[in-house]
Amino acid sequence: MLKAICSKKDLTLCSYYNCVSDIIDSDELEKLKLIRHHISTTRFQHCVNVSYYSYILCRKFRLNARAAARAGLLHDLFFYDRKAYNSAREKGQPHHSRMHSRIAVKNASELTDISVLERDMIEKHMWPVTLSLPKYKETYIITVIDKYCAVLEFCVPKVAKVTSRFSPHN
Question: pTM of the full predicted structure?
């Protein structure tokens, strides 16, 4: 079952899935299932989390929810180890936080046609680190949701571990 963190909804059974069904099972996204991301999740799951919650928020505000779902799924489409990159980078070479969105845009555009809006969302999801301002409201939303999901991915497993100690079943 495909689901987002803190959600019990099967994402394959809702309107969200129609927005991403043509790309979610691609070989490129499958590879992300093998890469650890934000300590307790995979890069694929992080992208699903960002995709789904960006879709929900954009739909609520009557913005382009389809573009948000697609850009969210593709925003971290890179395959290198970010810690290894940062420790091996040379002086003057951009930090991972600044560079990976460019690589994700390149990989996303090789996988599927991306719109100008989707490009802006992927390229600038790390704003303000990326410096150039987002052009669209959807880009601000994906930027905030990306950080929100990173916090959830870090905290939720820790909270679950602590609360399980106090469960009456233990």
Answer: 0.88
